[in-house]
């Protein structure tokens, strides 16, 4: 261990530890902008400068390793003046219309300027090139607010393995964006929104659809309904000052009713529906492979995540036959809402306006896909992120913390615990195993509390296996078969597992992939900043929600049984096939 002092405090640290990390251990706050824990430490913004005794120049704390006997000072006049100068220079080239910026009071640059006591911008002069890119369904780029921190570049390249944006040009002419100054729609961008999730300002953000929702709510001819994704309930409270992982399902339901929605439903209902359809599809593929000896596409990949689907369409189109034909729970909801539900209330599909509240920006893109119109209209009309819903409620003057919890409406407000865990990486797979194992064997999944521990947590790639030691006669061909599954989250990890399968590793039967680190609880539309500590808190809350329910397996959902009995018939039946399933396409450069 190395011994050093920071602001006179004696500290011990292992070799290779940077000054910033040691300072945090003793609760000394060193400001950062470009630094992104576990992803990026490049020392480019220089706001983390500190003074080290014996060193002529100030050093960036985020890239400078500690040494034995080092004496670090984080609050000298020289340090404060240097940080102020750096931030003043950033502000001089930054669009300072804070009053109308959606990141007002949630902006890292604004907070840093306030903490440093900056009241005036000393440096005025030429402004760098400004451009607003609104070309995609999900994201908006505004270079007038970009501070060149490169967080978005690191996440897009290193975590997601997409590489849609890079620094272009040099010096004062540097701009962050797609090559050749193209718009995002003209390059390979999966619209996952992880860039927007890490941006410290408002240079990249979700496309705001709140006005579209207000217009629908104000239209007396529209029956406006809302669905809320599983991951929302464990993160939405953060918009109103609650700690990460605080479950606010009831308050959220109450707030949505006060906004004027005609019905408040749960995407978890169609998460249960997804398990029934996708699980049946997997069992059918296994039967064709093991009994009929057909050359069937295995492993089967989950299809809940639209950013992952677009990633495959661009980078690995040879795996399109492996992807489940199931639509995502969001799109299944829209399809059944504008058919089954519309029939129950006597309305036409086009008279029903479906709003989704999602942790994801790519869901905006998914809702506009031309394949998603099997109900006879656009299945989902508008998608709001968690952050957008927070703004909507504040615009309405609703005091969220004072609300009492309410239950969601039937029939689409009933869900099992298996649907809750769709929010977490590994959750879709675990939910599927709970149902598939019981359908085949007649017994409950033999894991403590129904949790498959090996596919939980934040490891990038996880695996599990389970053997069918007994079966019903219908599934006799599976007796003795060991089902092998894998889970990956973050598209960089997806690429790793796809390359593994592409290289001949055909041991898996089913693979779950989610684009965002941690799964949907770490989605690009969730409250910022999402650290691993916050992901774990949200994951823990989701498991708590699951464990607190009486029904914890999708096939036990009574409203789902009613849907099949009255409308769909059976999983993978003719009506299910038409409404709930689709095919995805090779994109190459057809963006």
Any chance you could write out the topology, listing elements then pairs?
Blueprint: E1 2-6, E2 9-13, H1 19-25, E3 49-52, E4 59-60, E5 71-73, H2 77-92, H3 108-115, E6 132-133, E7 139-142, H4 151-159, E8 166-168, E9 175-177, H5 194-198, E10 204-206, H6 210-217, E11 223-228, H7 249-259, E12 263-266, H8 267-290, E13 300-301, H9 306-315, H10 329-345, E14 352-358, H11 362-367, E15 382-385, H12 386-395, H13 417-420, H14 427-441, E16 461-467, E17 482-489, H15 491-502, E18 510-514, H16 532-547, H17 558-568, H18 574-580
Parallel strand pairs: 1-5, 11-12, 11-14, 13-18, 14-15, 17-18
Antiparallel strand pairs: 1-2, 3-4, 3-5, 6-7, 7-10, 8-9, 16-17
Helix pairs in contact: 8-10, 8-14
User: Biggest β-sheet, characterized?
Assistant: 5 strands, mixed
What is the CA–CA distance across the termini?
A: 53 Å
Strand order of the largest sheet: 2-1-5-3-4
| Proportion of helical residues | 25-40%
Could you tell me the number of beta strands? 18
Strand content: 5-15%
At CATH level 3, the topology of the largest domain is: Fe-only Hydrogenase (Larger Subunit), Chain L, domain 3
Counted up, domains total 4
CATH architecture classification name of the largest domain: 3-Layer(aba) Sandwich
CA radius of gyration: 25 Å
Shape: globular
Structure report:
With 591 residues, this protein is an alpha/beta fold. It folds into 4 domains: 2-91, Roll (Ubiquitin-like (UB roll)), CATH 3.10.20; 128-205, Alpha-Beta Plaits; 210-269 and 330-402, Rossmann fold (3-Layer(aba) Sandwich); 274-326 and 417-580, Fe-only Hydrogenase (Larger Subunit), Chain L, domain 3 (3-Layer(aba) Sandwich), CATH 3.40.950. It is built from 18 helices and 18 strands. It has helices at 19-25, 77-92, 108-115, 151-159, 194-198, 210-217, 249-259, 267-290, 306-315, 329-345, 362-367, 386-395, 417-420, 427-441, 491-502, 532-547, 558-568, 574-580, and strands at 2-6, 9-13, 49-52, 59-60, 71-73, 132-133, 139-142, 166-168, 175-177, 204-206, 223-228, 263-266, 300-301, 352-358, 382-385, 461-467, 482-489, 510-514. The strands form 5 sheets. A 5-stranded mixed sheet has the order 2-1-5-3-4, with helices on both faces. A 4-stranded parallel sheet has the order 12-11-14-15, sandwiched between helices. A 4-stranded mixed sheet has the order 13-18-17-16. Helix 15 (491-502) links the parallel strand 17 (482-489) and strand 18 (510-514). Helix 8 packs across helix 14 (427-441). The longest helix has 24 residues, at 267-290. It is globular, with a radius of gyration of 25 Å. It starts with a strand and ends in an 11-residue tail after the last helix. The mean pLDDT is 95.
């Amino acid at each position: 261990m190395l011994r050093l002092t920071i602001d006179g405090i004696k500290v011990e640290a292992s070799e290779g530890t940077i000054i910033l990390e040691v300072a945090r251990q003793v609760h000394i706050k060193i400001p950062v902008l470009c630094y992104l824990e576990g992803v990026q430490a490049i020392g480019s913004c220089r706001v983390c400068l500190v003074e080290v005794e014996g060193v002529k120049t100030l050093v960036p704390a985020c890239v400078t390793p500690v040494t034995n006997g080092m004496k670090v000072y984080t609050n000298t006049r020289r340090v404060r003046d240097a940080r102020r100068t750096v931030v003043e220079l950033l502000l001089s080239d930054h669009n300072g219309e804070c009053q109308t910026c959606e990141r007002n009071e949630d902006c890292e640059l604004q907070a840093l300027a306030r903490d440093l006591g900056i009241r005036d911008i000393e440096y005025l002069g030429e402004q760098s090139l400004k451009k607003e890119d609104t070309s995609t369904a999900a994201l908006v780029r505004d270079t007038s607010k970009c501070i060149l921190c490169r967080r978005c570049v690191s996440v897009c390249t290193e975590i997601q393995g997409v590489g849609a944006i890079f620094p272009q040009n040099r010096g004062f002419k540097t701009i962050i964006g797609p090559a050749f100054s193209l718009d995002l729609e003209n390059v390979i961008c999966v619209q996952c929104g992880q860039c927007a999730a890490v941006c410290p300002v408002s240079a990249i953000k979700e496309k705001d659809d709140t006005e579209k929702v207000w217009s629908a709510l104000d239209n007396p001819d529209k029956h406006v309904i809302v669905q809320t994704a599983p991951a929302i309930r464990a993160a939405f409270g953060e918009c109103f000052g609650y700690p990460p992982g605080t479950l606010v399902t009831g308050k959220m339901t109450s707030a949505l009713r006060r906004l004027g929605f005609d019905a408040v439903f749960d995407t978890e209902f169609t998460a249960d529906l997804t398990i029934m359809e996708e699980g049946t599809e997997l069992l059918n593929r296994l039967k064709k492979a093991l009994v009929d000896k057909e050359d069937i596409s295995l492993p089967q990949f989950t299809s809940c995540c639209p950013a992952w689907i677009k990633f495959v369409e661009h980078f690995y189109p040879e795996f399109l036959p492996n992807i489940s034909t199931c639509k995502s729970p969001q799109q299944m909801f829209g399809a059944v809402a504008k058919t089954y539900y519309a029939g129950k209330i006597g309305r036409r599909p086009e008279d029903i306006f479906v709003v989704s509240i999602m942790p994801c920006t790519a869901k905006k893109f998914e809702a506009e896909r031309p394949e998603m119109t099997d109900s006879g209209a656009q299945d989902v009309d508008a998608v709001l992120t968690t952050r957008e819903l927070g703004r909507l409620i504040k615009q309405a003057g609703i005091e969220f913390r004072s609300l009492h919890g309410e239950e969601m409406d039937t029939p689409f407000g009933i869900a099992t615990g298996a649907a809750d865990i769709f929010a977490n990486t590994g959750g879709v797979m675990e939910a599927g195993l709970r149902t598939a194992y019981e359908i085949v064997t007649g017994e409950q999944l033999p894991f403590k509390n129904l949790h498959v521990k090996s596919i939980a947590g934040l490891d990038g790639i996880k695996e599990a296996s389970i053997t069918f030691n007994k079966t019903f006669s219908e599934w006799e061909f599976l007796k003795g078969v060991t089902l092998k599954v894998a889970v990956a989250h973050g598209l960089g990890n997806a690429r790793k597992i796809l390359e593994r399968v592409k290289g001949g590793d055909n041991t898996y039967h089913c693979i779950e992939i989610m684009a965002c680190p941690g799964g949907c609880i770490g989605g690009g539309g969730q409250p910022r900043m999402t650290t691993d500590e916050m992901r774990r808190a949200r994951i823990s809350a989701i498991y708590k929600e699951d464990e607190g329910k009486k029904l914890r397996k999708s096939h036990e959902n009574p409203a789902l049984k009613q849907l099949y009995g009255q409308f769909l018939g059976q999983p993978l039946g003719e009506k299910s096939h038409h409404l709930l399933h689709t095919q995805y396409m090779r994109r190459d450069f057809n963006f």
